[in-house]
Amino acid sequence: ARPLLEEALAVSREVLGDRHRFTLNSIGNLGALLQALGGLDESRPLFEEALAARREVLGDRHPLTLESINNLGGLLRAQGRLDKAQPLLEEVLAVRRGVHGARDPDTLSSINNL
């Protein structure tokens, strides 16, 4: 799967550009795969890139931006960097609570992530 995701990302970057939603999805997908394979250090720059681009293009409250924040927070938590993970996960929770309410499944998922 990794070679295919790397190829998809390379083609997306070339054809669509670094800020296109498909490219950002490919970046996140490759980061998630690397994390699942134990490549925590390899996945971090990808999650950081996706988050920075989504904040810029979509804004801080967009669901895909929140997904990117959550992904980076989860990765940092998995690396034992709780001091860096907690503010990110709290940011996601605050926005989801404000937008969806306390009983929404996404809000409850954010609570569990903390």
Automatic annotation (TrEMBL):
<protein>
    <recommendedName>
        <fullName>Kinesin light chain</fullName>
    </recommendedName>
</protein>
<dbReference type="Pfam" id="PF13374">
    <property type="entry name" value="TPR_10"/>
</dbReference>
<dbReference type="InterPro" id="IPR053137">
    <property type="entry name" value="NLR-like"/>
</dbReference>
<dbReference type="Pfam" id="PF13424">
    <property type="entry name" value="TPR_12"/>
</dbReference>
<dbReference type="InterPro" id="IPR011990">
    <property type="entry name" value="TPR-like_helical_dom_sf"/>
</dbReference>
